[in-house]
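Bump. Still looking for CDP-diacylglycerol--serine O-phosphatidyltransferase structure tokens.
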Amino acid sequence: MPSSKQNKRRDEQARLLDPTDEYPVAFSMVRSFHLADLLTLSNAACGFLSCLACLAHLVSLSPELVWASVLMPLGGMFDVLDGRVARWRYTSSLLGQELDSLADLISFGVGPAMLAFTMGYRSVLDTFLLTFFVGCAVARLARYNATVASLPKDKAGKVKYFEGTPVPTSLLLVVLLSTGGSIGLDGVLLSSASLPLIGSVHTVSVLYGIIGAGMVSRRLRIPKM
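Sorry for the wait, here they are.
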């Protein structure tokens, strides 16, 4: 059970975030963040830095693309830690939930799509499927935030399952793109099909489309670990 000290910290956070306060405390928004929130922001930073690494590679063909592949899994580590720390310190909040979704969108939605585009999967159909993937990630995260209060929970108040595949599953695509060459999958990754009147599409982009469709499927229920 939360201690009196933890309850006091929650009251202090509510006071700092009070929108009706005519004279808010300086930097009250930042001061209201818990350790778990800082870990979530670290996840967002990793996602943004991976996007910058992709842009740097496009500009100069420099080896920064390796960093793009490393930073997204690092963001995934922060994503796991923030939830564990929030439950450990009894600091779960609506603010933390919103922060988590925004960070996930950058690290596991925009980041993986930008990595694929940077690596050369950029035909018209490739671009459409990558955009579809990001749109599905946005929809998935928005729906989770809107419905999490009504989802079945265990005795500890933890949601029992995800509706649709979690957005961080896109890290599987990042690993595939990063290691495909070393395990002999270059032929599969670079393979493409030409469709009449539409153009070519790569196998990787189709995988992005499938993962995106899984995110918005209500039929898929993934147990939450």
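The two ends are 21 Å apart (CA to CA).

Edit: fixed formatting.
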